[in-house]
Specification:
The chain has 261 residues and is of the alpha+beta class. The protein is 38% helix and 19% strand.
Length: 261
């Protein structure tokens, strides 16, 4: 039986993945899911069952898979979704401050985020993305140089965005799985961190940390007054990983997603 999901709003893709594994003997699972489980757990007896459930609360992993006394936590991604993280912009800036990011770059992030020439969203005019790129062009270039010349900052930011999340103490993700119950890419924390440490991220002109590109969750350019929902969205910073699926394939050194029956 599925556990701990009756009262949860479950993503349809996550539910299908759970149903493909949960409570089934290993030899009853598709070849694709067998390969995924073997990657995580090593040898599995053909008559053994695995249990799968939703991870409760606001955490990075979406599901957990248990085999014997071992539990693996997985963050599920699918389709063309490249949005890998969202949190309050001020908590993310504080996180970067603790990594040693300069005051000037912290300020640039806030100016870029609120897009109204203030660091708190109190400005009367909210500018478009292209307008802010012109207004902050020099500062963004300087911020990108600082943020992307440090493997320490990139690695810790990617770890927070993909695996650890914001809330402490937390359950952390061991793997990213991009796909569905039929085909997908399983990529471990170690594989992703090794991959980003082998790459340079200087070509991107937008504000970014390694592969993670900043975007306000709600810029709302113009003079129109905002409602309460829009005001809350204004406080959220999002991080996109462009070409995310491609990079996962490269990180796992696979030319194509794992496929099975």
């Amino acid at each position: 039986m599925l556990t701990k999901i009756e009262n949860e709003k479950i993503n349809a893709n996550e539910l299908k993945i759970i149903q493909a594994i949960n409570g089934k003997k290993f030899n009853e699972i598709s070849m694709h899911m067998q390969k995924i489980l073997l990657t995580m757990f090593g040898n599995i007896d053909s008559n053994d069952e695995q249990s799968t459930e939703i991870v409760m609360g606001f955490k990075k992993p979406d599901i957990q898979v248990k085999y014997k006394n071992v539990t693996k936590y997985i963050s599920i991604k699918g389709g063309n979704n490249e949005n890998v993280h969202k949190e309050e912009v001020k908590t993310f800036v504080l996180f970067l401050r603790n990594l040693g990011v300069s005051i000037k770059t912290q300020q640039t992030i806030l100016y870029y985020h609120y897009s109204d020439r203030t660091m708190d969203g109190s400005g009367k005019i909210r500018y478009t993305f292209s307008e802010m790129m012109k207004i902050l062009g020099k500062r963004i270039k300087e911020a990108n140089e600082e943020l992307n010349n440090s493997k320490f900052i990139i690695e810790n930011s990617v770890t927070r965005a993909l695996f650890d999340g914001v809330i402490q103490p937390i359950v952390k993700a061991d793997y990213i799985y991009h796909g569905d119950e039929k085909a997908g890419i399983l990529c471990s924390r170690e594989e992703i961190l090794n991959y980003i440490n082998k790459n340079a991220y200087y070509a991107e002109t937008r504000l970014h940390i390694g592969p993670l590109v900043f975007f306000p969750h709600g810029r709302y350019p113009g003079l129109k007054p905002l409602n309460e929902i829009q005001k809350k969205r204004r406080e959220k910073v999002g991080l996109k990983w462009l070409n995310f699926r491609h990079d996962l394939i490269m990180a796992t050194k696979k030319k194509s997603p794992v496929k099975g029956n």
